Amino acid sequence: MAAGRARRLLGSLWLALLLGQPQPSAAAARSGPRNPLTGSVVRTFTPFYFLVEPMDILSVRGASVIMNCSAYCETPPKIEWKKDGTLLNLVSDDRRQLLPDGSLLINSVVHSKHNKPDEGYYQCVATVESLGTIVSRTAKLTVAGLPRFTSQPELSSVYKGNSAILNCEVNVDLAPFVRWEQERQPLVLDERVFKLPSGALLVGNATEADGGFYRCAIESGGTPKYSEEAELKILPDPEEPQSLVFVRQPSSLTKVTGQNVVFPCVAGGFPTPYVRWTKNGEELITEDSERFALRAGGSLLITDVTEEDVGTYTCIAENENETIEAQTELAVQVPPEFLKRPANIYAHESMDIVFECEVTGKPTPTVKWVKNGDVVIPSDYFKIVKEHNLQVLGLVKSDEGFYQCIAENDVGNAQAGAQLIILDLDVAIPTLPPTSLTSATNDHLAPATTGPLPTAPRDVVATLVSTRFIRLTWRTPVSDPQGDNLTYSIFYTKEGINRERVENTSRPGETQVMIQNLMPETVYVFRVVAQNKHGHGESSAPLKVATQPEVQLPGPAPNIRAYAGSPTSVTVTWETPLSGNGEIQNYKLYYMEKGQDSEQDVDVAGLSYTITGLKKYTEYSFRVVAYNKHGPGVSTQDVVVRTLSDVPSAAPQNLTLEVRNSKSIMLHWQPPPAGTHSGQITGYKIRYRKVSRKSDVSESVGGTQLFQLIEGLERGTEYNFRIAAMTVNGTGPATDWVSAETFESDLDESRVPEVPSSLHVRPLVTSIVVSWTPPENQNIVVRGYAIGYGIGSPHAQTIKVDYKQRYYTIENLDPSSHYVITLKAFNNVGEGIPLYESAVTRPHSDTSEVDLFVINAPYTPVPDPSPMMPPVGVQASILSHDTIRITWADNSLPKNQKITDARYYTVRWKTNIPANTKYKTANATTLSYLVTGLKPNTLYEFSVMVTKGRRSSTWSMTAHGTTFELVPTSPPKDVTVVSKEGKPRTIIVNWQPPSEANGKITGYIIYYSTDVNAEIHDWVIEPVVGNRLTHQIQELTLDTPYYFKIQARNSKGMGPMSEAVQFRTPKAESSDKMPNDQASGSAGKGSRPVDVGPDYKPPLSGSNSPHGSPTSPLDSNMLLVIIVSVGVITIVIVVIVAVFCTRRTTSHQKKKRAACKSVNGSHKYKGNSKDVKPPDLWIHHERLELKPIDKSPDPNPIMTDTPIPRNSQDITPVDNSMDSNIHQRRNSYRGHESEDSMSTLAGRRGMRPKMMMPFDSQPPQQSVRNTPSSDTMPASSSQPCADHQDPDSSSGAYLGSAQEEDAAQSLPTAHVRPSHPLKSFAVPAVPAAGSAYDPALPSTPLLTQQAPSHPVHSVKTASIGTLGRTRPPMPVVVPSAPDVQETTRMLEDSESSYEPDELTKEMAHLEGLMKDLNAITTA
Q1: Dmax (CA) of the chain
Q2: C-beta of residue 385 within 8 angstroms of C-beta of residue 379
Q3: Per-residue pLDDT for 992 more than 90?
Q4: Is the pLDDT of residue 329 over 50?
Q5: How far apart are alpha carbons 1062 and 1048 in whole angstroms?
Q6: Is pLDDT above 60 for 413?
Q7: What does the DSSP assignment read for 162-220?
Q8: CA separation (Å) from 644 to 590, 614, 727?
Q9: Are residues 395 and 347 in contact, defined by beta-carbon separation less than 8 angstroms?
Q10: What whole-number distance in Å separates Cα of residue 641 and Cα of residue 1145?
Q11: pTM for the complete prediction?
């Protein structure tokens, strides 16, 4: 062998010297780079392909036809033509000739009933000598038959405005040659007058001009052939309505991609019908569509059909009276297309190679292989593997050439080729091992180096011989006794055949190999060659070995068939093997789910079997093996069948609701889990209903899209939604009901947006990352954000981004530069207030930018050269009390944000209460995730990271969301009842808030009764406004057991009641009780009047007291006279004191003016407690302001607000610390304590307390008038520093600070004009309607939605507000007192509405005010 290689080397050198260049003839492959060892030339692949291939042609008799063909190669190829697989002899053919470019010209096509020499399949063949041959795709020449009408026009009539059809049916080949005439003049076709593909004529919206005689003609060469003439009559409109009827209905069609489709739909009737179309149940929009159009009044034209057009089309004709429908199906076929074309291959002799070829099409294409123009017939050495690939075993030199993969189905064919070049063994393959080489032969690819080659391996023997495999062993060569670095190639072939195959050892030093896939009872010749790093050595002597004869096993079972009997079962049948080689004992049926690796089997005694328990609508492969006494026989080929479809077995996933506006809700969902579809999902059925009317259910059937907008809903209404997937078999299970509430009103765009709630910047070297959060007031439309930036000024550059964006990177900045950045929200009205921030970009030397990509792990990995960027624009959309939908964007995805790789996202979330809460995480493969199981009324923070392979991003910027409130789910706890010291008829109820408040507690209701078993509506009710945790109940009956229950409420409604707590009042009155305390109706010190509601009914005994104390009508009249007298005296004293106070001129007047400046200018208060003066306790009711309660981040709900009391005992002063930090409240409710506590503290601190007024809606029977002020003004116009004001600088600073809060919050001001100037706190006015608040907007936490209404009970104690539709308390800022003239005018205005019976309810307040005024004057 070495001698032969030397001779080849000398021959190559001699040829090189003789010819002067190492290049073969021009027809051979082109020369490539020279091998550095041998001087041989590595041939390169030669471009050889078709520029133009023939296409299918429709012709007529006598016409000329050109079949185009053109091929490219460096050496001009020889072009020949085949018809129906046989080469044409064009030299002696008069009608057919070859054109210079290779095209075929056929003159005067011949076609008759018995002679069709030109019709058939044509193929272009291109050949280059010494290189190879390639063939084109096959093209069909169709010749139209003789002109013949299958149907002709007939007399017809049509109402004016309707559509008519005139038949002219011809052979499908002749349809393109049909034309129409009206009155024997050519008819001009347009959108209204349209010719169907069959040749029939459609006339839409018929007019008088359309009447006349029509005929059609076939022009297929020669004289046209005319049909009979028929008249079309246009009838006037009938007097009576005519029923709708289809004149022509659409029929199902099958088309090829790229063709046009016409579905005729002609309906008649009166009134004239209107025709529209739907596809798969969805309205088909034909206006302004590029591919869908209506023709002739209703027929549907689809141009350039694609696979997406497959489906069910419905023609709907309707007029004022009725509607009719007609359905049709469209199927689309696809010609073969290559997913993977064969690739050129370099190889050595004896190698095994594989040409890969992947095709797609509908129907599934068949594949055949052609080598140099000849079909490859499968054999032992040429095999079709993996359905379409060609494997060539044991290459020989004659295998060189061009191989073509030809794919064909019913609607077309295509070809793709590749070249095979076989190099000499001493020529290394110039590229890396191609994937098409088998693992057994790629050891040949290593280039050799100079050095000694190994000698022949010794003692080659066959140690194991079977029917289909042989094991060979040998000893190492003499030249290398150790042989640790040697590999071996085993060449083998059948005796008498020169095509060798090769098998390589798997690792160096191995001296045995197993040769498999041999034929039984066949002689093979083996030789072994050792190889070291320098190349192949000498070959061993040939060894002949004969395989064992095969045991007589059964052959394959013929005619195996499989068909699906149900969605979960398949029946397989077969026949007895033709060559059983003995009695068949049994069969083994193997089956496997397509795409899986594990095969299952079952033993069968007969010739059929039904396999059950399969997956629905899933493909399975089946094969059968027969067994006789010798064992298993030859397996059959696999047959593939899909189980039948069924309704989906699972509901869609991740149903989320997004309220768009007051009348529409957007639904998003994901399909049912994989494996539960049970068929092709054809659509989704959405059912929805009002929560309040569960029996009234609406349905909406959508397409296969994963979203649906439900419109036409009622505003401010809660709806339930559920969705189910559908297949052709029906509807699957539905999701659970998910609820959402439409907005009460749509977003406002009558003003510009407010300032964004936050702005954060992160400077890098040449960029700045800007992130922000939207304005707190989300009632105003935001259409985008404007980002301004520049060095020293933010007005140099401006960028506008979408309203959904929360993240932007400003690029191309200068390092080490100071930039000013501004952010403004804008809408169609204009831009809002800007938010400013500044940042200094980092210097060039700063490399800390990589910290963006450090993964949170126990170690710090080396930064990836292309790190993952974190997700951006993370948004939290609150959907309910326990569900938040997280969405984000990924800048590393394309613009359409479509995920095409294996990345996934990790969402994490936590709440900061308690502080040590751990993060929870979940993975998602889409750009959104639904977080469920959250706590109500809880603030959560969310962030997202992306992971792709082993790379992960950092966590994104956080998004925050607070879940909606929910009614309390637990009762108040630790309820205790104690008697008030010294007042045995007064008890104090104490309790703690519910452990599961689920929102801000706005009040409590105390139920008490002497009968624990009484119905709850018979219990006495004591409402408690705000979040107080104690309450007094007076005027109870002595020595009586009482039972108490407490119920908490928030903005969503009432929670559960606590367990009843029993308390028995003492037996006797205390001896030190004052006389005025013993009257049951008194309102003296420490007592509170009983507010009997409008529905209160006195007991039958005639008692007007809530507990049965008798009072005669005479005593009431005398008491009324006394009360009126006391009231008049009190008012006179108040006026005198007010005049006295306003005329005081002291040195404090200058301080007052300074305080006015502080209110209108700076809000910083400086001073100490010794300058504090008593407050003026008069209240401007017309300037009552709404203030937010919770300004503090303190999570303690008990410290958030203070309800306004009925008298001075309930007023709690504000500590001086509020002047330094107005947001830290230290108010606490003091309850019914000493009446002097307020006046003493107020006089000592000189601070006007901020109070909260509960605005409970009153029952309609209650005589409280709500007269809104016509001269409403904002809070800033209250003029707190008028001349008549108490000269107190601390009050001015306090009011100024309060106004600063008000301006920051921009809350509305409630103006209330009461019926009496002293009456507002006892009987509050009803606020203006329409003040409902959307709980999703956190900027105004007080104005919450109304709780569910409760019935007004028959017994009602003294309380501010009622048990009707409650509203939370509103804060009140107490302004300065009016002057004397204004006071007098207020009294005069109120005289008409001031009634004596109301004075009883005011006495307690008047006495408290008198004592406070006395404290002021004595100070």
Answers
A1: 150
A2: no
A3: yes
A4: yes
A5: 19
A6: yes
A7: S-EEE--EE-TTTGGGEEEEETTEEPPP-SSEEE-TTS-EEE-S--GGG-EEEEEEE-S
A8: 20, 10, 11
A9: yes
A10: 105
A11: 0.40
